[in-house]
Each structure stands twice: as structure tokens, then as C-alpha cells.
């Protein structure tokens, strides 16, 4: 039987680091767009705080919702 690392092809720490760097890239892209549109750094910072906070909350709720779905889960 294959373990999780063999199935995924990478360690959990690598996956976590990739997720964190992607989140940073996505948030900085949003901040750059807000800066271009408004010219206000304060608006960009407000966007960054709201973006990270709301997306983390919605991702958590999304994951918890999927815990209620039995489809596609392997049983032991």
C-alpha cells in the first residue's frame, strides 16, 4: 500500500510552503491592482487584510462542508 507521500509525490511541508507562496503571490497581485486603480497604498493594505482574512474563512468553511460529503473518500 502506498503512503500519502508516494501518492501525492511531495512532502506535506513542500505542499504547505507552495500554498503559502501562492497565497502571497495572489494577495500581492490584488494589492497591485488596487494600487493601480486607486493610487492609494492604504486601500491596498485594506484589501490585503480583507483578502487574506475572508479567503481563509471561506476556505475553512469549504473544507468543513466537504467533510459532510462521503463521495470520493477511500475507506480503510
Walkthrough of the structure:
By secondary structure, this protein is mostly helical. The chain is built from 3 helices and no strands. Helices cover 76% and strands 0% of the residues. α2 runs antiparallel to α3 (41-66). The radius of gyration is 18 Å and the shape is elongated. The termini are close together. The model has no long low-confidence stretch (mean pLDDT 90).
Give a concise summary.
This protein has 3 helices and no strands. The protein is mainly alpha-helical.
Number of helices: 3
- Helical coverage, percent range: over 70%
What coarse outline follows from CA principal-axis ratios?
A: elongated
Mean pLDDT value? 90
- Unreliable stretches covering 5 or more consecutive residues: none
Number of strands: 0
Order of secondary-structure elements: HHH
What percentage of the residues does DSSP assign to strands (E)? under 5%
The Cα radius of gyration reads 18 Å
How are the secondary structure elements laid out?
Layout: H1 4-8, H2 12-38, H3 41-66
Helix pairs in contact: 2-3
What key attributes describe this structure?
elongated; 76% helix; 76 residues; mainly alpha; single chain
Amino acid at each position: 500500500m502506498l503512503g500519502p507521500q508516494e501518492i501525492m509525490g511531495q512532502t506535506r511541508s513542500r505542499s504547505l510552503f507552495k500554498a503559502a507562496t501562492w497565497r502571497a503571490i495572489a494577495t500581492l497581485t490584488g494589492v497591485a491592482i488596487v494600487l493601480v486603480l486607486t493610487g492609494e497604498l492604504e486601500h491596498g493594505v485594506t484589501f490585503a487584510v480583507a483578502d487574506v482574512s475572508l479567503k481563509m474563512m471561506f476556505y475553512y468553511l469549504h473544507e468543513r462542508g466537504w467533510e459532510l460529503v462521503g463521495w470520493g473518500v477511500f475507506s480503510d
